[in-house]
């Protein structure tokens, strides 16, 4: 039939378009995930180099516009992440970023909910977190607060609990689209040891 | 043929209609199933409700978890200040009462501000009815005494100086339900400028910006990395850096709550006994309501609401009746066989600033737009700048430099103050927003150094900031080294500015300092500042003591004085009481002047010796800025501070109760006593970052499209199957 003959050509084109578009979308989505995982390996190498040089910034690859500044671990959920300097989109693609601001405040780390900081949903008050600074010193934190903030109504307030660690990611975790207003906040306070030197 | 075709077409239509109808219903179902599968991989209902603990976290006190995971509170603080003012000297008694409402033994750590020129000379600890008088000791020694007492379970208090206006009080072994009161006494000269007397009592600390790179100084860091933070004796939120080696000591916690006068977090009661020695035209407080009673020329002052929140400076101001403004005064004290004096003398006022003599000037405004300026401070800064821009004359030049993390200027070069350029400046000011760090050094360098095309114009830098930095000395050094012929004027902004930074930066910058604590003051204070800058300066001031009088005076070199500033001189005379007339001379507006004053050692005036010693210590510490080695400075300061029993960077007060109160088996918890956020300071305004990629959406959309493609492919095969039927 004439109609079917026609349809076959259209269908072939449509099929090709669908495969192309679908493949493109799927691969670019997968690429984001792959980058997030693979880059961490390169950054880990840069981090050990940085530690060896007493905290000198080391770029994970020559054209990188950021460098690792800390290492974050959540032992209970088996997470080990290299934290990058700054919160630019380029940095966050490869790892959680350290927010730079007037230092009167908490240490603020932000990461993508669908890659590195997906595990935030598994943290509960009392969960342990460890942060290593560029001199290799580990600080231990215990999660004290988990809440959801509406970024259209409140701004980030790092000064409220100086000394604490604040992890920020988007919320809800399973939303499909980026750019929502809700943020998921995990606050952890340092664990001070009873024994210490003056 | 036509009908057949039609029927075949109809048949084909029905067939394909059936086929599409099937997919029309099935595809969404399949997609739906896929979506459900995706959704099911995530916890549908979160076991933990993130909002449940909010009330607990938001309640008034700072909670920290102890080792057992139980929440315990920090000691509760209430303060009481009494100011006894006689003439030009104030003796202040500040009581800090720490109460432990928890059920653990605690060590309280409280960082607190005092006036930057306070001579702290007495400490007393009160436990119930027992009073223990503190002793002044070398800093390390005092720390060891305190540590030993703490370990032994004795109650103790250690007060250390971190900055001239920043102190730490540590109280050991405060038992459950117990209170300890620590009383500090200090002497402070009254500020007299432009006919107005004032006295400032700071109550809280604006969080400081700590520049530099974290330092690996502690050997503990190598042995037990996880303990390095716990080793911090001050519980500060910042780690020491190469530029601020004591960062942990000057970064106390802020209470997350906003303070209020009706139910204060840290309450303070303030009373004053003002004996001005002259009839007054007005007495008032800048940022508090007062209740004042007067009897026989003395004023009793109290807060109208009795107590107030410790979230802003207390500033008491008074003015003499117009004709009776003091022109000269001399106060003397004999202390431990030595004679001390405090001399105040007003240079003659020049009648009317001659408009003809006004030199064209270049004014560079440097404005702090860091995060700590957020809230009322940036509004005050904008108002101050707006006012300042209006005082410019067309022959002047100006520029505006705004800094936080980076430095941004209105223009690369100073602009002529044409109407158009001033308009541009106003627009620049209107758009200033607070946020980011306080990288002050590059801004200062840019304002003082770089584009200095030194012409016939006077170059003046007006520096508008809250001074919330930890590297003050580094900045003083920079000012001192690069000042050249510039003049630096500081304008302190906000409810709790770093007054020490304001005063010393202006002093090294050979300018003046002004405070703006309220938006309503911004205009009048800025106008006064520019009038002061425009008026002739009293220069080349010399003091001629009577023959035979041995005098060691501070400041050793009297700086040029701006209109309304008096000569203020603290002097030690040794064992011989001075007698005769002292002559002060100088030049103002091109003519010489000289005034004399009788050194009559009348009634003994308390505190003059302490003021002198404090001035001398300040002068010695200033030598660090100009490059003298710290060890040498310390060697000079230490004996002086010990003999006058004054707090200094090298001496601390320590008080120890003899009785052992904490049982050996009870643990001691360390708790920081929080400061209240300066009034009107916004919680730092930072936008939340964008923390989601589109990758799940892309993955799903991609999967969906590939799925559709697969379906279409399947259909194509069906079509092949059905093709004969269609023909």
List the helices and strands and how they pair.
The complex is a heterodimer of chains A (198) and B (727).
Chain A: H1 2-52, E1 68-74, E2 79-85, H2 89-94, E3 97-98, E4 107-110, E5 128-132, E6 138-150, E7 165-170, E8 182-190
Parallel strand pairs in A: 2-3, 4-7
Antiparallel strand pairs in A: 1-2, 1-5, 3-4, 5-6, 6-8, 7-8
Chain B: H1 2-40, H2 54-58, E1 63-65, E2 71-73, E3 76-86, E4 89-99, E5 105-113, E6 119-127, E7 130-133, E8 135-138, H3 139-152, E9 154-163, E10 166-174, E11 179-189, E12 191-193, E13 196-201, H4 220-223, E14 267-275, E15 280-285, E16 290-295, E17 298-309, E18 314-320, E19 328-335, E20 338-345, E21 361-368, H5 376-390, E22 397-403, E23 407-409, E24 415-416, H6 419-430, H7 440-450, E25 458-465, H8 472-482, E26 487-493, H9 499-508, E27 513-516, H10 519-534, E28 538-544, E29 552-554, E30 567-574, E31 581-588, E32 591-598, H11 608-625, H12 630-643, E33 651-660, E34 668-673, H13 695-726
Low-confidence stretches of chain B: 1-21, 38-72, 217-230
Count of helices of chain B? 13
Q: What is the CA–CA distance across the termini of chain B? A: 14 Å
The gyration radius over C-alpha positions of chain B equals 34 Å
User: What is the subunit organization of this protein?
Assistant: heterodimer
Helix-strand topology string of chain A: HEEHEEEEEE
Number of strands of chain B: 34
**For the terminal residues of chain A, how far apart are their CA atoms?**
93 Å
Helix residue percentage of chain A: 25-40%
Return the domain count of chain A. 1
Q: Which class of secondary structure composition applies to the elements of chain A? A: alpha+beta
The strand order across the widest sheet of chain B is 7-6-11-4-3-14-17-16
Number of β-strand runs of chain A: 8
Largest sheet of chain B: 8 strands, mixed
**What Rg of chain A is obtained from the alpha carbons, in whole angstroms?**
21 Å
- Note the overall shape of chain A: globular
- Kindly report the name of the CATH homologous superfamily of the domain at 362-534 in chain B: von Willebrand factor, type A domain
What percentage of the residues of chain A does DSSP assign to strands (E)? 25-35%
CATH topology group of the domain at 362-534 in chain B: Rossmann fold
């Amino acid at each position: 039939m004439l109609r079917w003959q026609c349809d076959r050509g259209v269908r072939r084109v449509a099929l090709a378009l669908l495969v192309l578009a679908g493949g493109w979308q799927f691969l670019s989505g997968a690429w984001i995930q792959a980058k997030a995982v693979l880059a961490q390996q390169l950054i880990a190498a840069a981090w050990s180099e940085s530690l060896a040089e007493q905290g000198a910034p080391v770029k994970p690859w020559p054209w990188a516009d950021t460098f690792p500044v800390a290492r974050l671990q959540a032992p209970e959920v088996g997470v080990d992440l290299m934290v990058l300097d700054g919160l630019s989109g380029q940095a966050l693609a490869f790892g959680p970023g350290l927010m730079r601001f007037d230092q009167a405040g908490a240490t603020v780390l932000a990461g993508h909910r669908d890659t590195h900081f997906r595990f935030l949903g598994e943290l509960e008050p009392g969960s342990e977190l460890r942060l290593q600074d560029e001199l290799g010193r580990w600080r231990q934190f215990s999660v004290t607060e988990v809440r959801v903030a509406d970024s259209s109504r409140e701004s980030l307030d790092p000064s409220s609990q100086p000394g604490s660690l604040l992890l920020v990611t988007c919320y809800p975790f399973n939303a499909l689209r980026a750019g929502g207003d809700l943020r998921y906040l995990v606050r952890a306070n340092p664990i001070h040891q009873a024994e210490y030197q003056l | 043929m036509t009908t057949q075709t039609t029927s075949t077409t109809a048949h084909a239509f029905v067939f394909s209609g059936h086929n599409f109808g099937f997919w029309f219903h099935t595809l969404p179902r399949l997609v739906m199933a896929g979506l459900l599968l995706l959704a099911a991989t995530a916890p549908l209902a979160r076991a933990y409700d993130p909002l449940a603990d909010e009330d607990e976290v938001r309640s008034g006190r700072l909670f920290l978890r102890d080792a057992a995971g139980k929440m315990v509170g920090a000691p509760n603080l209430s303060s009481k200040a009494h100011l006894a003012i006689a003439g030009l000297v104030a003796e202040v008694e500040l009581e800090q009462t720490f109460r432990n409402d928890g059920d653990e033994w605690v060590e309280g750590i409280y960082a607190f501000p005092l006036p930057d020129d306070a001579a702290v000379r007495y400490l007393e600890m009160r436990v119930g009815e027992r009073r223990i008088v503190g002793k002044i000791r070398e800093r390390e020694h005092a720390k060891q005494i305190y540590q030993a007492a703490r370990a032994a379970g004795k109650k103790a208090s250690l007060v250390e100086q971190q900055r001239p206006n920043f102190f730490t009080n540590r109280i050991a072994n405060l038992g459950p339900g117990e209170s300890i009161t620590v009383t500090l006494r200090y002497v402070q000269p009254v500020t007299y400028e432009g006919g107005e007397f004032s006295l400032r009592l700071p109550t809280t600390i604006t969080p400081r910006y700590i520049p530099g790179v974290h330092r690996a100084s502690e050997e503990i860091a190598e042995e037990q990395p996880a303990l390095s933070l716990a080793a911090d004796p001050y519980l500060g939120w910042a780690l020491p850096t190469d530029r601020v080696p004591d960062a942990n000591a000057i970064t106390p916690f802020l209470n997350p709550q906003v303070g209020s006068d009706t139910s204060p977090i840290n309450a303070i009661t303030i009373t004053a006994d003002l004996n001005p020695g002259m009839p007054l035209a007005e007495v008032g407080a800048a940022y508090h309501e007062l209740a004042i009673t007067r009897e026989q020329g003395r004023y009793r002052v109290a807060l109208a609401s009795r107590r107030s929140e410790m979230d802003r400076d207390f500033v008491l101001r008074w003015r003499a009746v117009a004709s009776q403004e003091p022109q000269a005064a001399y106060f003397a004290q004999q202390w431990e066989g030595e004679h001390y004096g405090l001399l105040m003398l007003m240079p003659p006022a020049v009648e009317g600033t001659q408009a003809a003599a006004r030199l064209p000037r270049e004014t560079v405004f440097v404005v702090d737009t860091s995060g700590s300026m957020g809230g009322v401070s940036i509004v005050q800064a904008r108002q101050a700048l707006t006012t300042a821009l209006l005082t410019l004359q067309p022959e002047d030049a100006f520029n505006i430099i705004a800094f936080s993390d980076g430095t941004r200027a209105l223009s690369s070069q100073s602009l002529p103050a044409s109407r158009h350029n001033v308009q541009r400046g106003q627009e620049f000011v209107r758009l200033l927003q607070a946020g980011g760090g306080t990288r002050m050094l590059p801004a200062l360098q840019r304002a003082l150094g770089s584009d200095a095309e030194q012409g016939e114009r006077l170059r003046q830098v007006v520096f508008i900031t809250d001074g919330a930095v930890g590297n003050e000395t580094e900045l003083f050094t920079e000012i001192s080294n690069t000042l050249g012929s510039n003049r630096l004027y500081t304008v302190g902004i906000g409810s709790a500015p770093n007054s020490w930074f304001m005063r010393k930066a202006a002093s090294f910058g050979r300018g003046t300092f002004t405070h703006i604590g309220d938006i309503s003051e911004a205009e009048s204070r800025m106008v006064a500042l520019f009038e002061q800058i425009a008026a002739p300066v009293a220069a080349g001031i010399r003091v001629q003591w009577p023959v035979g009088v041995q005098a060691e005076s501070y400041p050793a070199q009297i700086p040029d004085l701006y209109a309304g500033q008096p000569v203020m001189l603290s002097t030690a005379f040794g064992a011989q009481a001075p007698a005769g007339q002292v002559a002060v001379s100088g030049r103002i507006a091109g003519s010489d002047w000289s005034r004399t004053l009788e050194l009559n050692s009348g009634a003994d005036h308390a505190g003059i010796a302490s003021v002198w010693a404090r001035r001398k210590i300040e002068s010695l510490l200033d030598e660090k800025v100009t490059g003298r080695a710290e060890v040498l400075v310390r060697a000079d300061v230490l004996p002086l501070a010990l003999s006058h029993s004054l707090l200094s960077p090298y001496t601390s007060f320590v008080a120890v109760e003899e009785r052992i109160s904490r049982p050996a088996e009870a643990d001691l918890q360390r708790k920081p006593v929080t400061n209240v956020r300066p009034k009107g300071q916004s919680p730092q305004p930072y936008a939340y970052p964008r923390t989601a990629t589109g990758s799940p959406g892309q993955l799903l959309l991609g999967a969906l499209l590939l799925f559709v493609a697969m379906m279409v492919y399947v259909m194509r095969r069906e079509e092949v199957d059905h093709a004969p039927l269609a023909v």
